[in-house]
Amino acid sequence: RAYPNYKAYVTPFYFCDDWLNEFCENEDDDFKFVYMGPKGTWTPLHADVYGSYSWSANICGRKRWLLFPPGEENSLQKNSKIPFMLKETDIMNLKNVSFFDVIQEPGEVIFVPSGWYHQVWNLEDTISINHNWFNSYNILYIWHCLYKASLDVEQELSDLKQFDDWQDQHQILLKAHHGMNLFKFLDILESRVALAKCQKETTTHQEDMQVLKNVCEKMLSCSLPDGLSNNISVLIDDISKFFTNL
């Protein structure tokens, strides 16, 4: 941000349809990172924020990745918890678990789909560029992850529902827990609708609008805070007008 005109790199073409970071351009944060780690450092077993995709490009150095398709992490649980880190002995003893064990060389890019747990080691001193992002292809999964987190927070706060500000506190704690709340998610959808309306001549944006409508309708089928349902209905009407005016 200190040097907005300096283009250190160009996002690979396949990862350019990035709703998350386009939305964050006017926010105080983004999901673009440079990771630097000496040989032997590692990232613990995790799935990426919000249920997003991620890509990681090695500038220099080599990495080892363990990647587990969605659901396989359940087979790793110990005492009903997913382990913080898999040791080499744990990996050698994995049975009936599907996973990929990949060495990433300098200049190579790894794509991590939504919901894939992964653990990473720096085999050498390493620098990499990484983005988290989502778009029309995984936005419904992003909603599922957010709504599940919302229900988890609601359960934890269930004994406070008698207070007038319960819904406000729910959204505050959901953002603290998950990194995003229901209203912020709707803000992202609204920003995509506004963009598609400006560029409605493109087939891609027409397809995006249909996906956005489907997500909004899915949201309306869920239990939502006061006021949010009305805002979603307004957005659906806006999308319907978009198709009417094509």
Automatic annotation (TrEMBL):
<dbReference type="GO" id="GO:0005737">
    <property type="term" value="C:cytoplasm"/>
</dbReference>
<dbReference type="Pfam" id="PF02373">
    <property type="entry name" value="JmjC"/>
</dbReference>
<comment type="similarity">
    <text>Belongs to the JMJD6 family.</text>
</comment>
<dbReference type="InterPro" id="IPR003347">
    <property type="entry name" value="JmjC_dom"/>
</dbReference>
<protein>
    <recommendedName>
        <fullName>Jumonji domain-containing protein 4</fullName>
    </recommendedName>
</protein>
<dbReference type="GO" id="GO:0043565">
    <property type="term" value="F:sequence-specific DNA binding"/>
</dbReference>
<dbReference type="GO" id="GO:0045905">
    <property type="term" value="P:positive regulation of translational termination"/>
</dbReference>
<dbReference type="GO" id="GO:0005634">
    <property type="term" value="C:nucleus"/>
</dbReference>
<feature type="domain" description="JmjC">
    <location>
        <begin position="1"/>
        <end position="150"/>
    </location>
</feature>
<dbReference type="InterPro" id="IPR050910">
    <property type="entry name" value="JMJD6_ArgDemeth/LysHydrox"/>
</dbReference>
<dbReference type="GO" id="GO:0016706">
    <property type="term" value="F:2-oxoglutarate-dependent dioxygenase activity"/>
</dbReference>
